[in-house]
Amino acid sequence: MSTSLRPMTPDEYGAWLPAAREHYAADITRAGASEELAREKSERDFARLLADGVATAGQWLYVVEADGESVGILWVAERDDDFGKNLFIYDIQIDEAQRGRGLGRAAMLLAEEEARRRGIATISLNVFGGNDVAQNLYRSLGYSEAAIYMVKRI
User: Fold this and answer.
1) Which residues pair with 91 in a beta bridge?
2) Strand partners, 88
3) How far is residue 7 CA from its own chain's centroid?
4) pLDDT at 61
5) Is the pTM of this model over 0.85?
6) For 56-106, what is each residue's pLDDT tens digit?
7) For every residue of the chain, which 3-state class applies, written as one string?
8) Is 8 exposed, middle or buried, given 0-12, 13-18 or 19+ CB atoms closer than 10 A?
9) Are strands 123-125 and 84-94 parallel, antiparallel or unpaired?
10) CA distance 34 to 90
């Protein structure tokens, strides 16, 4: 199976954005925030990070394709933070019907190729607690925890 990345089109962005905001808000809610706060944070973060959609400087949105068929998305940005210059993965999603075929792994390896192409030696990402499938995938690819944020509701 041949897997590749191509830039997301403005039409694809328009279709992707509402579901991506909802998915992110759901992750925040599962992590312990109220639905209202999670939605507000999701709206605020997407508005800040992708102010100009697919044309936002410093942000790259890709469609993941397998044998020429769209199977998911990859959103990355170059960042310079406490860990130095890195390619940060904001989102990676494989369509539910396509999961279990190694496409998430393939997309992560494509992200590594993208980092090498840009001369970046580090990739970083955030994964919410409870997302064991993603955490296991990242660990199997050599990722390790850099920080763990914990919460207790009282």
Assistant:
1) 75
2) 77, 124
3) 15
4) 98
5) yes
6) 999 999 999 999 999 999 999 999 988 789 999 999 999 999 999 999 999
7) CCEEEEECCHHHHHHHHHHHHHHHHHHHHHCCCCHHHHHHHHHHHHHHHCCCHHHCCCEEEEEEEECCEEEEEEEEEEEEECCEEEEEEEEEEECHHHCCCCHHHHHHHHHHHHHHHCCCCCEEECCCCCCHHHHHHHHHCCCCCCCCCCCCCC
8) buried
9) parallel
10) 22
Amino acid at site 137: L
User: Which pair of tokens denotes residue 27?
Assistant: 């992750």
Question: What residue type is 16 in one-letter code?
Answer: W
Torsion, CA 49, CA 52, CA 58, CA 61, rounded to 10: 90
- Name the residue type at position 48: R
